[in-house]
Amino acid sequence: QSENSDKSSAESDSETEVEQVSVYHKLLATLKTSPESESNEEEDESESEAEESETEMDSEGSQGTGEADGGEEDKNDVPAQEEGSFFPHVGKRCFNTAEQTLDQEQADAADASCDPSHGAVEEFTDVKHESEFSLETNFMEEESGDCNADQRDSNSSQAISEDPFKQHMERELEEKEVEKMSTLPKTSSQTKWPRLGQLTFSSTLEKPKTLKAEKEVDVKQLHLHKPLESTWPKVNRQFLSSVNKPGDASFTPLQRELFHIMNTYRDLFYPERNALTNGEEIRHAYCLHALNHVLKANAQVLSNNAKRRDRKPGTDSDDYRDQGLTRPKVLMVVPFRECALRIVHIFISLLEVNEKKKIDVSNKKRFKGEFGSDPEEKPPNLKRPEDYEAVFAGNIDDHFRIGVAILQKSMRLYAPFYSSDIIIASPLGMRTVIGAEGEKKRDFDFLSSIEVLIIDQADIYLMQNWEHILHLMKHINLLPLDSHGVDFSRVRMLSLNNWSKYYRQTLLFSALQDPQINSVFNKHCFNYMGQVAVRNVPLSGSISHVVVQLPHVFRRLEAENSTSVIDTRFEFFVNKVLPEYRDAIMSHTLIYVPSYFDYVRLRNYFKKEDLNFTHICEYTKKAGVCRARRFFLKGEKQFLLFTERFHFYKRYTIKGIRNLIFYELPTYSHFYSEICNMMKATDNGVDATWTCTVLYSKYDAQKLAAVVGIDRTAQMLQSKKTVHLFVTGEN
User: Fold this and answer.
1) Which of 477, 511, 534 is the last residue of a domain?
2) What is the pLDDT of residue 379?
3) Same structural domain for residues 442 and 548?
4) Is 240 within a domain?
């Protein structure tokens, strides 16, 4: 039997025995899952003129950060989708780990490692440490000090009432409260915090209580589990400055406010994560919270193991309900392997009290080989913006998942999912294990008892495949289809009642506000504690960073609803905008298209009308990109259709632009100024005939505010007229 965490039960379970189907299983077997979402895939374009590539493209295209060239563009209007990432050339990478670097544990499983001849990765799971990391058979170590701490908590009603973990997990909801959360709308209130800014608190059960931001925080008052009280200040020291007061030497101002919300077990949406500035301090804060949650949950189970062992016969066993239907408690969704690598390193640092007390980490060398990166793989002299370098640092493979088990002084990497406390995965990694209805090899039972869901860098999933996130949200906290050997006398009533989703805390971090991300937070988060969303409005906008003198014309289109805006935009562009650019005088026109489906529609229309154009999308091969850029620069092609995803993953400078059309406002506001500033790359310098036209509707309010600022947005949405802005420098 394959040693693979894709399988529907842990390796420790004996799957050869045929279990009798109980009433419970029959009941669960009636549950249905959502149908498979549609996907996209590209066919070949049948042109290959690699000899035409420019010198610049030779250096840019040889980028070695894991982005192999995807297939060339699809000629069909609606492409048939592959099951993988929307952007197939990210995530097909195979890392070779030299056999001599493996310790005995990895050598034993060498057949499950990377196969360089086929370029496929056989997924490895650690089956050796099952008993060592089993929650059911282990007890609290006296010498660790954790046992006494747990007993102290158990014996002190004050400690129980103050510990946020116990407050949250031990509250028993009533059926009328659950019904209320299922049917009634949320009520909300606003407040302002010094660092986070404008916060919206929302809740269904009761009038949302607005927390007050703590100006100072003592790490000893946060109810952190040992050893986090002592290790956190050391691990987090790199982010602290002399600005921090002596009594508050553990958190940055941002971390203090974020952790204050996390530690109350409310859902949190923070849309101002920046890979360049605050990304790592945010990662450290949520890692502290996740690890604190797992250590407390496991300590409770181990402590109760000892109590059950020592109890008198006939004692009520209902006193020890301390776990879910499956073991995984925390799911961390991150875009790239490098992110998983950093998270595990933070966990290890937080668990190691000092240099002398190193924790035992199983399969560490293997993990470093598969999730690390070779610095020599990245060619030198590639000029990319700083934010690009920060996002695409290290190993950017986007197809992975790994189970992590933590027990007192040890950590087990590559744990089978049903023996894991924490699962770290990419959306694609989750999608391929969850599968679709009708598939034989699919599993999502391990998501049944997730108590903390962390989705980091959510904006990047808009550039990968947002459907994977929606698919995950539909399959989390469902009743499992199998018992997986659980002791039902230890399962919390909230899990048996199928109320897990009302206890799950969701932490959502993004670089931007977006309707799709907002929708997940509003429609898929049911936490009875309520939600907190950061809702700051941009004051200036990225248009202030446009350095070329350029008239910006914002043309408003009227749509009846958010669904019809797609067709309305196309008709508006074809009938009102494009005719103005058909004249040969309006050559060198770049059309920026955020949506791939809009791009396909425009490309088909341009072909039908026999317009003189070329096109670049995220699937175009390197030779095709070289050819299109050269044709456009020399004026041999009047139009260049250009997708946002291509810009996101490549960031090439397109030379020769004289006229810009933003078919839709960009997802990332700084892309607006980046594309506009490409005009200065033209050899002729400033040209008085340069133009920039932007199409927008009232449904683009968030994107518009990020580009022009909130004040201009309010004026533009009130007025239905075309708006002309002339911006120079930092105006």
Assistant:
1) 534
2) 60
3) no
4) yes
**CATH code at 530?**
3.40.50.300
295 close to 419: Cβ distance less than 8 angstroms? no
**Residue 530 and residue 546 in one domain:** no
Select the more confidently predicted residue: 729 or 47.
729
530, burial (CB in 10 Å: exposed 0-12, middle 13-18, buried 19+): buried
Residue 346 CA from chain centroid, whole number: 18
| Helix (H/G/I), strand (E/B), else coil: 659 | strand
Tokens 């039908």 belong to which residue? 608
Q: How many CB atoms lie within 10 A of CB 561?
A: 8
pLDDT at 46 over 50: no
- Structure tokens of 363? 């399969």
58 lies in some domain: no
Joined tokens for residue 713: 């947005």
Strand intervals (E) in 13-155: 114-115, 120-121
Q: How many domains does the chain have?
A: 2
Handedness of CA 557, 561, 566, 570 (dihedral sign): negative
Q: Which of 543, 534, 541, 662 is nearest to 591 (CA)?
A: 662
Strand pairing category for 330-333 and 267-270: unpaired
Least Cα distance to 78 among 644, 566, 600, 645 occurs for 600
393 in Cβ contact with 338 (< 8 Å): yes
Tokens of 407: 């027990």
Residue 49: what pLDDT? 36
Pairwise CA distance, residues 417 & 402, whole Å: 8
3-state secondary structure of 90: strand
Tokens of 509: 């971090």
Query: Residue with structure tokens 């007993």?
Result: 151
Q: Is residue 100 part of a domain?
A: no
Residue 351's CB is within 10 A of a number of other CB atoms, namely: 22
Asked if residue 591 and residue 643 are part of one domain, the reply reads: yes
State which H helix or E strand residue 306 sits in: helix 279-310
Q: Are residues 519 and 596 in the same domain?
A: no
Same domain, 718 and 575: yes
| Nearest Cα residue to 136 out of 322, 323, 302 | 302
Predicted confidence (pLDDT) per residue in 172-187, tens digit: 999 999 999 989 889 9
CA distance 262 to 508: 11
More confident residue, 32 or 707: 707
Residue 568 pLDDT > 80, yes or no? yes
| Domain that includes residue 681, residue range | 542-728
In a domain, 49, yes or no: no
At 5 the pLDDT is 40
Q: What is the residue type of 294?
A: V
Do 404 and 523 share a domain, yes or no? yes
297: Cα separation from own chain's centroid: 25
Tell me how far apart the alpha carbons of residues 430 and 476 are, in angstroms, rounded to a whole number: 11
Residues 101-126 have a mean pLDDT of 44
The residues facing 201 across adjacent strands are 189, 532
Helix (H, G, I), strand (E, B) or coil at 718: helix
φ/ψ bin of 363: left (φ > 0), alpha (ψ from -120 to 50), beta (otherwise):
left
Q: Is residue 670 helix, strand or coil? A: helix
Query: What pLDDT was estimated at residue 214?
Result: 77
DSSP string, 335-399: SSHHHHHHHHHHHHHHH--SSSSPPEEETHHHHHHHH---GGGSPS-----HHHHHHT-S-----
Clarify whether residues 286 and 426 are in a common domain: yes
DSSP state of 79: P
Share of the chain above pLDDT 70, in %: 75
Assess whether 505 and 563 both reside in one domain: no
| Residue where the block lists tokens 């562009």 | 573
